[in-house]
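This week, look over our next protein:
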Amino acid sequence: MSTTTSTSSTNTTQLLPGIGSNYLASNSGSSTSAASSGTLSEQDFLTLFTAQLQNQDPTNPMQSYELASQLAQFTTVEQLTQANTELNGIEQYSGGINNGQISSLVGKNITAQDNTMTVSSGKVTNSLNYTLSTPSTVSYTVTDSSGDAIYTGSLGSQSAGSYTLPWSATDSSGNTVADGSYTVTVTATPTDGSSAAASVATTIQGLVSSCNLSANPPTYTLSGTNAAQIPVSSVLQVSAN
């Protein structure tokens, strides 16, 4: 018990260096409670600050700048604590608004940057588009969930513009592929030979059936079995159903 009282007195004296040892000895319960929690509440500070003034050495009283410094430090910490509480409230409020905006797209058609095509009952459930900035020779490769290429198609020479990929959910042998999600890589080589073959950015379109707000980042699920999961940040355009 004597060890605990000694530790409490030391910690409190460091916080309020002008306090007398006689006060600490007579109020060991209060100082022990403050030390055990590791923090001082407003009431703890005011109690100890008042005791400091009452029990200071009359022959060597605290200077006014020392008192002002302690009060300034306490005020700063109190204001920071209040600001942190208010910021937490603002964050929760903003999060609620953001979630409301995200969920408002359920039932809307979206265009998003993505390269996934899904197949359900032997049919592709979403379209995949790409845009060429210059006339190019275009080809594409479809891979399954294991990363194996199941189909490679050549679309020949195409002018600059936007196109929809014509894949019909078949493999290289013409067999209908299993239901699931497939990744498509579109490659274009400028016909004027100005640059080498490069992957082309693709977008998909679909109807949003639901959203997952617990994901990080939140995602949209497009309608259909095995539908694509689209991060909110990938959405480029929204239109009414």
